[in-house]
Amino acid sequence: MNDLAPLLTPEGRALLDEVRGTAPADELAVATRLRRDHPAPLVSAALAQARLRQRAVAKFGTEDAHRMFFTPHGVEQSTRASVAAYRAARLTELGVTSVADLCCGIGGDAIALARAGIRVLAVDRDPATAATARANADALGLAGLIEVREADVTEVDTSGHDAVFVDPARRGGRGRIFDPEAYSPPLSWAVAAARTARVAALKIAPGVPHEAVPADAEAEWISDHGDVKEAVLWFGTEPGAVRATLLPGPRALRGAGLPDPPVRPLGRYLYEPDGAVIRAHLVADVAAELDGGLLDATIAYVTADTLRPTPYATAYEITDQLPFNVKKLKALLRERGVGVLTVKKRGSAVEPEELRRKVKPQGPNAATVFLTRVAGAPTILIGAPAAV
Predict the structure, then answer these.
(1) Largest CA distance in the chain
(2) Which of 127, 186, 197, 301 has the highest CB neighbour number within 10 Å of its CB?
(3) Which residues pair with 176 in a beta bridge?
(4) From CA 274, how far away is CA 289, in angstroms rounded?
């Protein structure tokens, strides 16, 4: 339902409250009951919005998600609230008091910016999306700080704002777009727009090629609870800098321009760097911190002889190393009574679930299996999380 207006009426809001938390299996019965007293299209719209709100809880939290309004695309593409809040805090630290939020979507970033006390011009060309952003600003009591404008971002004058934030669309009719010039608007336009402001942040896909990063930009990769969420190009900060930021925290690892770590034999410990560290090409910085090296020149696993606490990698104590052989692994796991099996892979074509089916783990004990390469050879490592 593209027109949110019926849901914003007292009747629509009452229906939203009534259908909150409806399980998918109960929707038909609930819809049948509610259609006795309410228009069928409104009941359908309320149930659809309730489903979207349930999906949005993971990004926005229960309280906000059940007050906000969403579109299917908006739930999928909106920034996680923790990431948006981090970025808003960084803009505040840079002295920013007003931001032109271009391609604002349903308003997730605009909400975080406004909550940080920043005045926001939120722009989106899609009428339904702009209406949703406006409804969200109102629902969260932020309409005084957020002006939503339905317009083509390429035609908006941003000169009256301290900063520009651009979140180009990275999905098309055929799914995710990997070519930055195929973004909407293209990355080259977004970079040009960024250079007109004192400070700017461009949200891009975390898999962006490093060679696509402009020389005058700072590149930051952000993860939340270990999951890589996005990359950001910053202008007006530290040209050429590269950093990995881990949330919660934040904890930031700034690249020192180190050469690739040496390849060395397996030590007692294996470290799995955070995804943001890997995407930022800062594995060498973590290896230097741990006095470690790589198991293979092409694999982002660090090995070391000593256990050292670091927020940038998860440590495992390795007990066994064997050439890749499923039968031998199955026998070893059975001998040790391993029934709780975590399978991780890097540099292996074998899927974790496929291995799990073949070894049929049984027993009271737990283990972590790594499918990887050591000095180019397919290898299985067995261990467990190390107590730091």
Answers:
(1) 72
(2) 301
(3) 171
(4) 14
CA distance 121 to 33: 42
- Contact residues for 154 (Cβ-Cβ < 8 A; gap 6+): 185, 189
Percentage of the chain beyond pLDDT 70 is 98
pLDDT digits (tens, 9 = 90+) for 171-187: 655 667 677 777 788 88
CB 115 within 8 A of CB 144: no
Band (1; pLDDT cuts 50, 70, 90) = very low
Distance CA 186, CA 268 (A): 47
Q: Element (H or E) spanning 230, and its range? A: strand 227-235
Give the pair of three-digit tokens for residue 275. 């995804």
**How far apart are the C-alpha atoms of 159 and 137, rounded to whole Å?**
23
Strand blocks (E) in 324-386: 338-345, 365-374, 377-385
Mean of the per-residue pLDDT values of the chain = 94
Structure tokens belonging to residue 17: 């409250």
Task: Note the pLDDT tens digit of each residue in 283-308.
Answer: 999 999 999 999 999 999 999 999 99
Which of 111, 56, 66 lies closest to 87, judged by CA?
A: 111
- Nearest CA to 1 out of 11, 12, 10 is that of 12
The closest of 168, 176, 295, 277 to 223, measured between CA atoms, is 277
Closest CA to 375 of 266, 259, 260: 266
Are residues 95 and 162 in contact, defined by beta-carbon separation less than 8 angstroms? yes
For residue 250, is the peptide bond before it cis, meaning its omega torsion is within 30 degrees of 0?
yes
